[in-house]
Design brief:
- The two termini are 22 Å apart.
- This protein is an alpha/beta fold and 217 residues long.
- The protein has a single domain, classed as P-loop containing nucleotide triphosphate hydrolases (Rossmann fold).
- The protein is built from ten helices and five strands, in the order E-H-E-H-H-H-H-E-H-E-H-H-E-H-H.
- 52% of the residues lie in helices and 11% in strands.
- Strands 2-3-1-4-5 form a five-stranded parallel sheet, sandwiched between helices.
């Protein structure tokens, strides 16, 4: 079967990343996290020469995956206390990475305006995950170990960052516009695991996977 890509956009605390991760595991494909190159640049101070080196490696099997595995891990959130600042060169590079991934392998890509970057591809399913604020606050408090006040602030700042990021790089498009996506799911009403199952059924309908390709994990 042909290669396919599932892109995810999500409100902070909605469980979108968890849904993306579970989906990837059940389908046996890689899940590439949102803003990974921005995080890499900020955390490690990588310069353009190293990014260019990685750009060349991504054409080889395992190059990009090996690069990601070598990145430092963090539980902090990039947008919590900072404003969106554009970086056109980095976004251009990220866009090339995303296009290369879409050509090379079936995968899940979270964030990074991947739905927009791959909008002309026929092998892409784009998903937006959202949930009521109370649900997102509760999940944020649980997973980050923070107070309700900090959870509210984190959600507000992160979602604002994501909206500004999306609007800037899509030239005015709005991040939560349902027209941008194949599916928009409310993770509180549907449930995390059932969101995964719905997306799987849609992939079957589109002809990208067959039921026997889904693993019980």
């Amino acid at each position: 079967m042909e290669k396919y890509v599932v892109t995810f956009a999500r409100g902070f605390g909605s469980g979108g990343k968890e849904i993306a991760s579970i989906l990837a595991k059940r389908l046996g494909i890689h899940c590439y996290e949102n803003r990974i190159l921005t995080l890499a640049s900020q955390m490690s101070g990588l310069d353009e020469k190293l990014f260019q080196e990685v750009n060349e490696k991504v054409r080889n099997n395992g190059g990009f995956s090996n690069f990601l595995r070598g990145l430092p891990k963090t539980k902090t959130f990039i947008a919590r206390n900072e404003k969106f600042v554009s970086d056109d060169k980095l976004f251009e590079y990220q866009s090339k990475i995303i296009r290369n991934l879409a050509e090379q392998e079936s995968c899940v890509i979270v964030g990074k305006c991947a739905d927009y970057i791959l909008r002309d591809k026929q092998n892409v399913v784009s998903v937006y995950i959202e949930a009521p604020r109370a649900f997102c606050v509760e999940r944020t408090m649980k997973h980050m170990g923070v107070t309700e006040e900090v959870a509210h602030a984190t959600i507000t700042q992160t979602d604002k960052y994501r909206a500004n990021y999306y609007q800037y790089y899509t030239h005015g498009n709005y991040w939560t516009n349902p027209v941008n996506y194949d599916m928009t799911l409310n993770s509180e009403k549907v449930g995390i695991n059932d969101c995964v199952k719905l997306i799987e059924q849609y992939l079957i309908i589109k002809g990208f996977i067959t039921p026997d390709m889904i693993k019980n994990v």
